[in-house]
Each structure stands twice: as structure tokens, then as C-alpha cells.
Batch of 4 targets.
Target 1
Amino acid sequence: MSKITRSTALALLASSPLLCQVTAAPGGAANAVNRDWVRENYTKFEYRVPMRDGVKLFTSVYVPKDVFTDEKTYPMMMQRTGYSVAPYGIEQYRANLGPSDLFAREKFIFVYQDVRGRYMSEGVYELIRPHKPNKGPKDLDESTDTYDTIEWLTKNVPGAVAKVGMWGISQPGFYASAGMIDAHPALVAVSPQAPVTDYYMGDDVYHNGAFMLAHRFAFYMGFRNREGDPEPPKPSIPFQFGSPDGYDFYLEMGSLANANEKYFKNQQPFWNLNIDHTTYDQVWQSRAVWKYLKNIKPAVMMVGGWFDTEDPMGPLRQHSFMEKNSPPATNMLVMGPWNHGGFARGDGDRLGRLNFGSKTSAYYRANIELPFFVHHLKGKGENKFPRAYVFETGRNQWRKFPAWPPAGAKPTTIHLDAKGKLAWQRPGGTGFDEYISDPAKPVPYINGLATRVPNTYMTEDQRFAAARPDVLVYKSEVLERDVTVTGSPLRGRTYWSTSPRCWSAM
């Protein structure tokens, strides 16, 4: 039996927000055309860059050809990743360079690196390697690997000037965040995008303690540790669930402990790390990179999506912490109506059932992302970057703010009142509601069949769950004025402002 008191405050999400490498690459024939264009305009190099402990990290570098014909020089755009820098071999070219095709045509030197212990890089991989704030001469972490990489690149890559921009989405976003701690002087602009920030408190694994089972199971089926010496990715066979019904699959699996024996065959330490640490213990706390983002020197553009179910808190938590701890002059938060990495692909005019009235992703890539890096790396354009560049749903408009949350917003508590009501005022008395919670009949999150988590599921109509006896539903009276809800999802506090008659969210 579970109880919930009626005087408990309701934690509103900032806008109903929603495993993998996320890229903006086109597919099919367009992929081939892009690859041919890259080959015609860039020369590829492969390096094994030495770190301070002697370990060498595999690094692919694409240099514009006019460096050799016209003695041109360019700043670098760098991504460090645990998801492979394929294709390997100097005759094999990527079909896309940079955060979007706009960057390849603007021209930079593009750098892609397998992080320590992944694929063609030497060393031992550690999942979200903890940062070491007090280092001795032999200590290393992702911050030192980034520093050593930039130090080598600026001295050895033809045509490179000592200005570097860094970006990454999801796990590569973590490496971007880690890289700007005690940053190399040449690292002048960084954009962690939907970054893994705190695995337990809101990102990927545990959403404030709630284990994201379907996400994590599917991810770790494909994300395995390397065995033996450096080598390119091996061909893999997608996991077969044996049923289109993921709900039944996980019920029949039984205890989470069964997954290791039955499916991972005791060969997936990353899954075990998640299952063995179910509280916010030192293992998770040591991987919370946001705690070390003090006195950051590079310009920062933090990017996230209101509908991101995998890393919804990362950009908000990082931006907030930096603002309170000697932030850089440019510390811009960008939040749009996207799922995980949705800003890097497609037009962004809709997500599932929702229509946002404009091409939000295309707008971001051309009018926010590209100008940020072009200014800080090439000195072009005006240095007028707001503290927050946020898409407001409901009104479907981009808005700029000098601070986040907006100065006019105020903390507000919405209470659970009697008879399933939401109330603006605290109820006069206390009480409780109760329901039977049966682990053998958990509440589904979609009204249909799926073995993997649809990245649009939070835009779906989930009222089907309201008919269940183990789901409590509370609703307000008809609104008499517009209400804008803004702030951070999955936290106990939400900010809102009002104007007449409808809900919107930021």
C-alpha cells in the first residue's frame, strides 16, 4: 500500500520533457554525395596522440585542402567520443564534418578522437571517468587527456592556429564538459550538447532514483567494453527481444539480477555498475562532472531539449552551477523543443503529436550554433549572446533572456487538494490518498507495443494510464489566465509567470 499526502507540493515539469551516438548525417544517396564533397575539399590524417602517461589516443583530422595550395590557416573543431571515429584508414572519409554541414562549408580543421580505451586508442576505458580535482604529476582524467591532445594538435597539425572549439552530444557532451575544466589556453569555445552530467540525479540511468530500465538495457546491449588491444568496431548483431512487447519481456525477465545471467552473460561491467549502485553513493557522486565547473575560461554554449528523456538535466544543471561559480563572459543556455540530440538532425518543426510552427532545429544550427563558434574561433559577427536562448512552447517562439530563470519569474507551489484537485493555496488540513502498488503489474508508459523506448513517447496521449487504480490523477480548475511554466524538470522547484488564458512552457 502506498500513500501520498494531500498537502504534498506537486513538482511540475518545465514542459513535459522527454543511447547512442547522435549525428546530423544524412542517409542513403545524400550520404555518398556528402562523402565525395568532403573528400574533394579536405585531406584526412590519422595520428596517435601521446598523453602525459605515454598512452596514445587515435585521432582523425580533416584539413581543408587550401592549407596546402594557398597556405591558408584555420581554427580546429574537436569532438572526443566513446562511440568510434569511424571510418578508419586515411582513404576512408566521413560523410559529414562538424556539428552540421554548415561548418564544413565554413571551413575549419575537424578533429575526432577515440577516448582512452575505446576502439583504436590505447589505455583503459572507464565509464564517465571521474574527475580528479587535486592532481599529482601522474594523475589523469578526461580534462588532462583533452589538454594533452590540444597541446599536441596545435603544434603538429598543418594549417592549425591555436584556437580550438569543442562540441559533443550525449556521452561526447560529457567529454566536452570535462575538457573545459582547467582548459588548455587554445580551447576558446565549448558546447556540451545534451551532455551526460550526473548519471544518478537526472541523466540516463537514474532519474532522481528511478531506474530507466528500457533505456539502459538496450544501450548496454550495444555498448560493450573492448577486449584486448586497440581495434576498430566489430560487426554486431542487434539484440532479439523475441517479442514486440517490451512490457512482457521485462516482466518475464523478473529481477534485474536475472539480466546479467540470462542476457549479458556476466560480460557487461557497465550494466553491473548501474545495478550494483542503486543509491547516490560515491560511485555516482564522483562522476557528477558539474561539481567541477568553476572558473571556466572558454566561452560556453550549453544545449538541451525539453523533451529529452535521456539527459534532460545536464545542460540546466551545468549552466546553473557555472553561473554561480565565476562563469565565462559567454555562458549561453540553449533549450529547444527537442528529444535527445533532436537539434542536430531534421527540421525540428514537430515531435510526435506536437507541431512547433517553425523549423526549430534548422534555425538553431544556422542562427545560434554556427554564429557561436564562428565568432569565438574566427572573430566574425557580433559578440551579442544572451544568457539564455529558449524556445517557448504554447506560443511557439524563441526568446532571449539576460538571466535564467527569467528575472520576472517567481517560485510557486501548487498543492494537492482533496478530491483530485490542484490548488494554488495550501489545503486547510492534511490527508492522504492511497493505491495498491503491484510489482507484477507495473504502469506502462505507452499505450502500445515497443521493445525500445520511442524518442517521442512523452508527446503521446498518456491518459490511458489514468484509468488504472494504481495511478493518482490531479487536475486544476479551468485556468482564468495564461500560465507560463519555466525552470528545470525533475527538480522540486518550478518557476512560472502569467498572462491571460493558456499554458505555455519554457
Target 2
Amino acid sequence: MFSTLVGSRLPPRYQRFFKLPERRQSCKAENTRETILGQAAQRWIEGHQASAGLYRLDSGQDAMGARVGLIDRAEQTIDVQSYLIKDDVSGNLIGLHLAAAADRGVRVRLLMDDALTEEVDSGLLSLDKHENIEVRVFNPFPRRRSRFISLLANFNILNRRMHNKTFTVDNQVTIVGGRNLADEYYQAGGETEFIDEDLLVIGEPVDDVSDGFDEYWNSPEAIPMAAFDRMVAHSSVAESVKEARKYVDEHLDTPFLKGMDSRLVEEFIAGRLALVGGSAEVVQDRPDKVRKLVRRRNSVTSDFLQKMVSAADKELIVISPYFVPQQQGVDFFGALVKKGVRVVIISNSLASTNHSSVHAVYARYRKPLLRQGVELYELRPRFEAMATETKLTLHSKVATVDRQRLFVGSFNLDPRSLYLNTEMGIAVDSPELSTNMATSILDTLPDFAYKLRLSRKGRLQWLLQTAGVEEVITTEPQTSLLRRFLTKLMSFLPIEEQM
């Protein structure tokens, strides 16, 4: 059913560091139209005469609830691709439901990048021992020496990461966007919460997402968990599930779990989910991008996005949490302004970012962008309506063009996404969805963001609007003198190409 074939040996650069397990190819499920998700998707597509149906997941609870609900309704396959999985409530919750699906006979493939796997718990990794679950790690670090030494010795290869995020069930429904599998991406109530975006998608694009997953899964860089000496968990699946259940049960009374359910998936199956029809194109870098060591070579995703936003005639809205446009980007956005396009760019402030080094480089381009007529906004980490001390960080990667087209995915406007990491996303032709996205973004800017401007003397100012009163701030808002000083020091380092 899944066209499983025996694969080849590991690539030579990995053979020095890992044991050589049997490596097998596997592919998407072809005949899933009769699954409950397949039937629901087909009814909607036929009833709306659209090639794709899309639903915006801008709420963290809805985004997690949709994932759990899809897992619970899976009948044949689950494919999960993620840059990061954490040993927290979200990671354990997903692990529990994946194990239950595998117990029902569902084939589960979990592909994760290796950049932050030290934070992944052994219980989740032990899922690989389940007969219906396989875990693979993309472009792994050697395990016989420290990561720092490995990175120095193999910098050109290990500096390149898989940043893609997809979540596909029965090759009928997929979720594409910016969220990894960790609490902060689902507003679970921790010290930091990420503002993020996903799209739930049915129709033609789902098969393209599955094809892309297969290409990554079967690529030489996707190494089976059995190859690792120190990462293979020693506990049984049953023991790991028991530990995960205990951990999740300890958090059942939290607002996050109390408010989370699979309502959206059940509404979809019942035909009541308010999907938006449109045409959509999956845009994805090839996995061999991590092998192409030529510097400053654009990728599939970057080339597509450049063409898409270049076509703007009236309005371009870009959300990029890590924004390093470089001079070519400043010139590009300036040219759009000169032809009459309103260009709005939203990124993190120094107070909201989780990467001060990125902000140090981004800060170089704020004045040049403002001089070009670009509207620049930065997220406020806290505002009056927040009843907690939770810090907000922007993580959405979104672009809307003329309220006709939009892009949601993993791509940041920075050199790392352009030249180093693999990225993906989905481009949608839908005036309804694009207008909804653009309107909601612009309507919330006064409450959520500072607007930047230049004073008459050319100095940066941050405008804060509260209760109809405008306040002018002349230093990086909500930051300490020490953080500003350290960030300024970082701005002198030659780190721009790595941001």
C-alpha cells in the first residue's frame, strides 16, 4: 500500500559517525478517498467547485486541537515534519495520540531536524520502537563529540537546517505554517507565547505536500533513529506512554488543556467548518539545498516569493519575526513604494524577540527602510489587555499581496532562510482569505505593535497608541540599558550572513 522498498547505505559523510541500520524508502498512501477525512474533503471540494479548501489557524489552542483531532481520526497514515519537538505538554500530548493511532494500525512517520534535538525527551524518541512508527532525523550532528566541535569541523553542512513544518493525515488534510511542536507555539500559558499562523488545507495541495514530505523522508540526509548510539531510548513504548500520560494528566487543569478540543476537525467531518475556497500552490525547497555549498544562491521558495511580492500594485503586508533585508531588500521594498505600493512590514521589537543577535543586524536597516517610505512596525511584548506577565514573541511568516494572494509558511526574510535552511509554505489565490488576513493584521497593529518613524533630526522614534493617546518613545521600548548595550555590541560582529 505504501510502496515500501529497501533503500541504500547511508551517505559516506554519515558512515563515520553512525551505525548502519537498514534504511527503507516509504511513500504516501495513494488510496485514502474512502477514509472519513477523505470523504469529508471530497464532499466539500465537489460542493464548492474549488481545487482547495483552507482554514486559518491563528489561535494556538485551535492549532493544537486540530492536530490532535486529525491524529485521532487518522485511519492509514500520519506524516509530521518539524524543526523542533519539545518535552513539554504539547510534545507529550502529540506523542500520546500518535502512539494511540499507531496502536490502531496507522503508519506514523515523524521527521525532525537535528538542530535542537537535545531538548527532545527520550520518551518521545522511544516511539520509534513501535512497529507502526518510524522517527528520522534530518542532517544529524555526530554523537561522539560535542555539538560545538562538530559544528566547527563540519560548518558548511551542519549550519544548514530543515526548517519546514507540515502535518498531514491520510494524505487528505494537511496543516502548513510556522508552528513547531512545543508549548510556546500554542499559547499554552508559559512565560513566553509565540504569535503564529497555520493553514489547514484540503484538496489538490495536500498531495503536493505529501510528495514533498516523501522527498525529504527518503533523502540521504534523513537518518533513522536506530543509527544513533546515545539518542535511542531504552524504555519501552508502554513505559514511555505511561510517563507521558502522567505528565499530561498533571496539567489537565490548566486553561490550555481545558480549552482545547477537536471541535474544528469534527466540524470539518460534519461539513460545518467554514473553509474558504481558492487555488493554492505548495512552494518547497529541495532537501539537497543543504548540500549546495555555493554561497548566496537563491532557492525555490525565495525565488517564488520574490516574484509574488514583486507583482504587488497597491499593498504588500509582510510579517517576518526575523527580518534582515540586507541592502538588496531595502532597494527592493523601496522600488515597490516608488511605484505606488503601500508596503507594511511587521517584525519583533528588541523586547519581544527571542534572538537578540538577529535584532542587532535587523536594526541596521530600520532607518534606510523608513527613508524609502516603508511602514515599519515592531511587536509589543506586553500590552494593557494582557492580564499576565507572559511575554509575546512574533513567529508568524505571512505575506499578503493586494488582498488577492497570500503566503503562509516557514520562510523568514533573512539570509538564513534565503541561502542556508530549507523552507516551505503555501501560496493561496483567494481574495476572501487574503482580505481577512490583511484586515485582521492592520486592525490589531495599534494594540499589538509600535509604529516606527524618523524624527526631524533623523532619529528613530516608536509611537505607542493607548486609549486614543499617542506616546513617543525615543529608545528601544521595554528594554534595559544592559540589553540595549549588549545588542549594540553584537551589531558590530560579522554575523549577518548567519542570521
Target 3
Amino acid sequence: MELKEKHCWAEIDIDAIKYNYNLIKETFGRPFYTVVKADAYGHGAKYLSKIYSELDTFGLCVSQFGEAMELRNAGITKPILILGYTDPRRAYDLFKNNLTQTVFSTEYASQLNNNALYPVDCHIKLDTGMGRLGFDVWADKERAHNEIRNLLNFRNLRFTGMFSHFSVADSTGEKELIHTQKQLELFNETARMMDSWGFNLKVIHGQNSAGIARKLNGCYNTMRAGVILYGQQPSDEVIMPQIKPAMKLKTIVTHIKTIHAGQSVGYGMRFTAEADTKVATIASGYADGIPRLLARTGHTVQINGKYYPIIGSVCMDQMMIDITGSDDIKMGDEVIVIDGRGENSYDRVAEKTFTVNYEVMCSVTRRVPRVYMENGTIKHIEYGM
């Protein structure tokens, strides 16, 4: 099995994915959702959901109805939890496709209930300090508790679970530790109250990747593993050192030439040679998900085990690399633009472009084929275009 053509592709290590999954499973001995929203953080949700299903994942988490239906249409039968908003008029589609919907306010619950012809499975979302979606037990606990208790009046909604989300569990600063502890306390208190009100919740989850890495404990019986599944750390402060990065962004050398002193390279004449310079053009750019800002950061790519800097601007489909002094690079050679670890890792790219590794991975666009490798062999190629 080979790529139809080599321009830019993402190489996904299935061995690393399985290793990370089993590490989480063996370390914590607790069921967990595998989070595949945002196309599995850029790794390809359809194929990885099949892998997670084979590993007997507890369920899958997505952000929106469209993501859930992409998995159902791909033959995925495992439970799917939609973490975000779904149009309440989709109530029958939620029921028909056995999807679990997050309920985060009385207004939303009312609309979903009124549109439901059959009971819709739901998880209740608490806002324990994230300030995003959820019944706001942080700002007004008494009001939030009253609103949650009244959910029992919505007969077309079947509440099977409850969850919250940590906002600063990936930080170990004093202020952040206090905030996370309060989130835990609010969550545990509300869970106990809900049990006394008659909610028969089977699934209670709060630990995201950072919470898992920190082994934060509450009244949870389930977890949500996200970025750690893909071998990336929640932050520099909170890590699981054993996990293995799963994705490399690769391309090829398409042209090599020497420019002379005074010649410029790329848009805006951002690089002008001070001496004769050997330049390689490679077939990837910002339309593939490579930050345009990266060219100004001294970022290097890897060719034949050595690192070479980007020069000029990152173009839409191409980049130029200074390979002066190298005589072993030729047209067609593979280039690792972003790696799991090392000088050109997702963490380093994120640091240089003032963002997080999550965004860098999620920015890999759909036109980039995902090539799934296992035991050094291509097992599957997923084309987005």
C-alpha cells in the first residue's frame, strides 16, 4: 500500500496509540472515554475510532452532532457522547443514532425535551469553574442545584451521566491548585446531592488528560482521555513521561538549487542570501497546517537525520530550506516537518508560535492524507480530499 502521490502527509503510529491506550488502562484500572473530537486532534477520527473500538473503549467523545454522525456512518457502534451543543430539533436523530447529548442549562433541556419524541440519553454538565458550558455551581451553587433538581421533570430526557471539566489542572501554581481543589469539592458535593434527589447516574466523569496525569480523585467512575492518547503532554508542568507521540508531519524535497549573494527567497523578500546558499524546496505549507509564523522562528526540519532551517516565508503549499553544506540531499527525500519529539516537535512549534500543542495538531488540514503505520507497515491511508 502506498500514497497516491507524495506531497504532505501525516504519519500516524498505531503502535504508539495502542501503547498509550493500554498505559492509561493499566495505570488507572478505570473505564475511560477516548476523545476523538476535532478529527481525533488531527489524527483522523474515523480510523482511530475503529482502533479504540477494537481495544474495547468505554465510549467516544466528540464535540458536535456532525462529528458523531461521521463515526456512525463509518460503522462505529460504541457509545458516543456529544460534549457540546446540538440543535434541539435534532432530538429524534440523537435517539435514532443512539447518541448521548450534553445538557448544560434549563433552557437547553427544555427545548430538547419539547422536541423529543422518544427518550434522549443525556449527561449533565456542571460548570465548576471553567466558565464555559454547564450549570454554574461555581457562581451560584444554590440556584444551579435547584435547576439541576428540576431536570427530573423533563420526561423525554434520560439522564445517565454527569461531568465537569478542569480549567487549570495542567498547572501546578498555587493559585491554580486552589482553583482545581475547589472544582473537585463542588463536583463531589453536587454528585452527592444529585444522588439524594433520585438521579440514578451510571457514568460520572471529570478527569481530562491533565486530571488523569495528576491522578486527581473525586467521585468519578469514568475518565476522558484526550491529548495523552496521542502522545502529547497536557503542559510542561503536568506530564505522563511514558507516553509515546503518535504523529509526524512529513513531506518531500521537490527542488534543489544554489542562489548567490544578494538573491532573495520567497514572498516579501524576507530572506536575502549573504553568500552562496544551497536551497531545497519542500512540498508543504500553511494550507497543510504549518503555521506561517514558523519561518520567523528559526524552525528546523529534519532530512536524513539532520536539521535544516526554514528560510523566506512559509508559502501556501511550499517552503524553502537552507541546506548549505549538505551533499547527500536529493529530490524525493523525505522531510519531517513536525515530529513527536526533538527540535521540531509539536511542543517546540507551539512554543515558537505562542500557542499549545493541541492547536498545532488540530491545524493539520483535511487535504493531508493520514497514513497509519503498524509494525513499520502501512495498514491504512485515509484521504480527506
Target 4
Amino acid sequence: MSDDLSIWLDGAKALLPGAVTLRRRVHEHPELGLFLPETVKAVRESLEGLDVTIEEGPSSSGLMVTLKGPSQGRTIVLRGDMDALPMPEDTDVPFKSRVPNAMHACGHDSHTAMLAMAARLLHERRDRLSGTVKFMFQPGEEGHFGALKMIEDGLLDRHPRPDGAFALHITPNIPSGVFSSRPGPFMASTDTIEITVWGKGGHASSPHHALDPLPIACEIVLALQSMVTRRINAFEPVVLTIARIEGGTTSNVIPETVKMLGTLRSVSEHARKTAKEAIPRVATNIAKAHGAWAEVTLTEGYAVTVNDGRMVDIAREAAREMLGDAGFFPMPSAVMGAEDWSYVLQKIPGCMTFLGVAPPGCDFHTAAPCHSNRMMLDEDAMAHGIALYAAVAERFLDRGFAA
């Protein structure tokens, strides 16, 4: 095997038109959740003619595509998620979403296209592979636990079981074509907070004859923020946001109940546990102090995404060998977004790496971010993503985690 990784970048550039075509097709017809028939059809058509096996489980539209090299050895899984977000698109691109209230605002269309072209690229040069590559086309990342569904369907553990795992995620808020990652906590856990405060309704002119739950709810919100700063280690940060407060019907009626909805994010399972134990204690006791009653429901979301530093090293060195030292920079801290790739990394050592896709002529600091109704990306950067998928796969299969 040659150690020259430029072959992957050259090959990826040749495949870029195909990636753009596939990305735009998927972008124009976004699908939500676990079952994505049109997207899967596009992926399958993009893989036609390849000597690969394709498996699909009963719980979702997830595909596991397996490419075997000429010799048996290690196995790596590469992942691209495929689902869109339930939101309108407000861009003027000619391939704008045709589906009302559905948009690829998190770049999963580009992930799908890059992974499909990486499969073609690695297939073209499979004589360089000293092992097996699995391509995980995953639905339901946006809150539907798609990765966990594929794991539960047994698709990840089928022989040969992966020894390493690698995923990319685009962001418009990094310079185009540049990669960034870090060892350890990479993205946060996420849990949903629901709090209902019960008081006693009455006339707004006579609050002393009622038990107003609204100021109690406001006090709970402020107390939860104090709890985070006073009870949680500052070096294990937690973000707690109450994003919705709903109560009342008009200006002169004190309602009986107030409902609150929020999110809890953490990059430490210990801090997450501490906060989850404290939230009901704070809310119920503040309500009780005022003679009211509160009920708290915590719905567990994705786990902390924790990168294995050894795979980060492989990605960093591969990126810099192909693109120069400026092609990769270390992330100073984790981000508070969440990923169900976390469940794969709980089972298999690996990592996720960001790929910058700041649109041409746009300052990456102020570019519309992922989940924005105006998010756009530099499609040329996908060539770098395709190349890194391939380079990391080859390097891991050849060397594993050896220095």
C-alpha cells in the first residue's frame, strides 16, 4: 500500500459533480424521521454497479453497506445521516425544498452525498484496503434515535464487527474545507424538561384569593439557573434552558396551571446526573414553599458524544497530509449540540469530525448556522469530506490505532 493520501483527494475531486447532484436531489426532497423511502432510493441508485452488500433492518430505513478489501483484517464503519428537519426553508437556491415544512438545515443531505461518493471512491481503489469498510446510512438522527435503532436491529454488530468508527458533520461556521475535532467530550447529552405548576385560579384583581402559579414558575426558572452555577462543577459545564412558558388565557384571569418546557445539555454524565437529580428538588420545593404543587418530567435524550483520541489523531494527520497544516485545527471545547452517533461511540472506539462549509463570500463567524432556515453550504468542500472518509478508512485498516 502506498502511504500517499493525495490519491484520495484527487479521486474525491473527480467525484464531486456526482456528490453535488446527489446532495441537491436529496435536498429538494427532504424526509423526516426513521423512514426515508425517497432518500434511500437515491442512495441505492448512487451505489449501483458496486460490489457491495446492502442490509436494511426492520426498525428504520437505515442501510449498512459493506465493502470488502482483498485481504481480511480490521473493519471500520463510516457514517452519514440522511434525515431532514421539520422546518421551512427560506433560501433562494434553485434546488430549494419542495416539501412544506421540511428542510435539510443540518447538512445531512451533504453527509449522505459524501458517504455515497466515499463508497464509490474506496470501491475504485479497494486494492488498497487491508480490511473491510462499512458505510452506515442512518435515518432519524434529529431526535428519533436512528443510530440506536440500527444498533438494536443488529446492523452494527454483523460480521465483521467494526473495530473503529468515523463520522463527519458539516458546519457553516468553520472556514470552507477545514476540519476540526477534539479528543474526549465532543458534543453534549440532551434531556427534555417538562414542569407543570398547579396553583388556584381567580380574578387578576384579587391575587390574594387565588394562588398564582405564574410568579412561582418564574421563580423556578431563576432558581434552576442558580442551581446550575452553584451545584455543578464549572469544568463540567451544563446548559439548562427553559424555552417555553405557557399559562393563562386573558389579561384578567389568574390561571390554575402553568407549563414549562426546556432542555438540559451536558458534556459530562456525572454533571448530567447531578442536574437531573436537582431539577425536581428545586421545582417541587419552590412550589411547595408557596403552597402550590409542581410536577417534573425528565425525558432522556442522546448521551454525551465522546471521541476516542486515537481516531482523532488519525483524522488530524490524514487531513494535514492532504491539505497542509491549515487543513485541521483542534477544537478548544465541546459544543452543546447533541448527536446519536454517541451510541455508536459507546460500543466502538472512534470519533466525529467537523467539516467547515462556510458559503463563498460569507464570513464563517456570521454564516447562518445549522438548523437555520437560511443555512447554506459550500458544495466544493464536500470533496474534502469524501477524501477524509477514504483516507481515514485506509489509514485505520492499515495501521489500526498504532502510532
